[in-house]
Amino acid sequence: MKTKNVALFKTPGIHLVIVLIAVIGLAGGVQALENASCVEMAVPSYFYEESLWSENAEGSGIMIMNPNNGPDLEKSEHYVNQVRNAKANGVKVYGYVYTSYGKRNPAAIKRDIDRYNIWYGVDGIFFDETATWKSKAGHYRNLTDYAKSKGMKNILNPGVTPNEEYFKFADSIVVFEDSYKDYLSARIPSFVNKYPGKAVHLVYGADEDEMKNAMNLARQRGASYIYVTDDDLDNPWDSLPYYWQEEVMEMAGLCR
């Protein structure tokens, strides 16, 4: 912005103050950029094709693998290679495990965790079908503690916001998993903002313009991870959207 008071700059003392303010402001701006947090992409990558894995690995922060509703019964060299390549691109890979809303045997869940750890060396576990009520929080704390003991992080997926107790031990939680139409009117409880870095939003059934709007909404609503796709039910996570590259570029602008 220009100033009409050019005489102001003729006073040495004031000139020095202005220079100092400018330097301090520049330093503050650099510091703000260094401290800026960015919304990242967390993609349920429930597909097998190498081409999709390679494309997905170019823009994701997290990819969630799901060989067969879990790690399957035998190790797959195909997935070994895909996980290796994704991690070489700086992507963190999580393994899908279902929990049946607290009803599945914990021993079976821990067996799946061990398989992902031993076979694929994943970075974390994605606990699907997570319960939401407080009485089950201890059950999930036990499961996440087990994964952490193996050096793995976790994402809980109830698909909605669970009781606040879950936020005290989970690394991340999917607080929204539903259609774009429902995302427009979604209400994320304000207490979620007390736990920065944890909220994940998964949105399906969106065209390219709707994807861009969903990205902006995710930022406004405090999401740390977001993924939007044009795919739809019954499995919206078995492909990449036709606008994948545009979504990656849109994601690059979501630093806040």
Architecture overview:
With 256 residues, the chain is an alpha/beta fold. It folds into two domains: 1-36; 40-251, Alpha-Beta Barrel (TIM Barrel). The chain is built from eight helices and eight strands, in the order αβαβαβαβαββαβαβα. It has helices spanning 12-35, 50-56, 77-88, 106-120, 137-149, 180-184, 208-220, 244-252; strands at residues 40-45, 62-65, 92-98, 124-128, 153-157, 172-179, 199-204, 225-228. Strands 1-2-3-4-5-6-7-8 form an eight-stranded parallel beta barrel, surrounded by five helices. Helix 4 (106-120) links the parallel strand 3 and strand 4 (124-128). Helix 2 runs parallel beside helix 3. It is globular and about 45 Å long.
List the helices and strands and how they pair.
Elements: H1 12-35, E1 40-45, H2 50-56, E2 62-65, H3 77-88, E3 92-98, H4 106-120, E4 124-128, H5 137-149, E5 153-157, E6 172-179, H6 180-184, E7 199-204, H7 208-220, E8 225-228, H8 244-252
Parallel strand pairs: 1-2, 1-8, 2-3, 3-4, 4-5, 5-6, 6-7, 7-8
